[in-house]
C-alpha cells in the first residue's frame, strides 16, 4: 500500500529483506560475478541481522557487503546511499529501522566509520564494509506471533538479545522459554495498551528537531533571502555550523 506521504507501507506481512541495495545495475549480484570482473575479494555478503524495525510485522533487514582491495590507486564510488542520519520510520506502534553504515580498514589499521561516500581512494589490502538500512516495523511488537519471532531468531535475522528486548521472548538453547517469556512480557508490556503513536522517527531525528525547529528553519530561510544566490549555499553551511557549535556548547 502506498501511504499518503509517498512511502511504501506493508500492513499484512513483514518487509522484504535485502531489496534496497545498489550493487551495479542489479538487485543482487553473485559474488563470483563481482570477483571475476573486478580485482576484489568479497569476504562477506549476506543479510544484516538486527537491522529491521520491530513490530507486529517487522521491517525488512538490510544487507552487508565486505570487500578487500587488491590493486593500487583503486577508486570506489557508491550510489543510493541513503538513511545514514535518520532511520526509516516505524508506523502505528512499530519501531524505526536502522541507519546504514560504511566502514574502512586500511592495512594494519582498525575499522573506522566513514559514513556516506562519493569517491573513495583505496590501496591494496584495504577493506570496505557496507551495511544498508533496515525498514521500520508496523504495529505493536507485543502483537507479533511468538512463532514468527522464533523463526527470525532461528534464521539469524533477529538475535536472542533483540528478541528479549523488543518482543519479550526469552530463548534457552534455541527454544522459547515459556515461563521466562511470560514474566518478561508481563514486565515489558505492563502499561495499558494505549493508542500508539502513528510514527516512530527514531532518536536521531527527534534530537535534530529539538534544535532545528520549524521556527528556526523559517528564520534561517528568511535570513538567506537577502544573500546573493551565488553565496546562499555557502552562507547556509556557515550558519548551520554556527548553530551546531552553539548547541554543542
Overview features:
249 residues; 5-stranded antiparallel β-sheet; two-stranded antiparallel ribbon; flat; disordered N terminus
Low-confidence stretches: 1-6
Quick check: average pLDDT? Answer: 88
Number of helices: 7
Which secondary-structure class do the elements indicate?
A: alpha+beta
* Distance from first to last alpha carbon: 44 Å
What general form does the structure show? flat
Major β-sheet strand ordering: 1-2-8-5-6
What's the total count of β strands? 11
Radius of gyration over all CA atoms, rounded:
22 Å
- β-sheet strand percentage: 15-25%
Estimated helix fraction:
25-40%
The major β-sheet equals: 5 strands, antiparallel
String of helices and strands: HEEEEEEEEHHEEHEHHH
How would you characterize the overall build of this protein?
With 249 residues, the chain is an alpha+beta fold. It contains 7 helices and 11 strands. It has helices at 31-37, 146-154, 160-167, 178-188, 203-211, 214-224, 229-248, and strands at residues 40-47, 63-69, 74-77, 90-91, 101-105, 112-113, 119-122, 127-131, 171-172, 175-176, 199-200. It has a 5-stranded antiparallel sheet, with helices on one face. The protein has a two-stranded antiparallel sheet with strand order 3-7. The chain has a two-stranded antiparallel ribbon with strand order 4-11. A hairpin with a 2-residue loop joins strand 9 (171-172) and strand 10. It is flat, with a radius of gyration of 22 Å. Mean pLDDT is 88; it is low at 1-6.
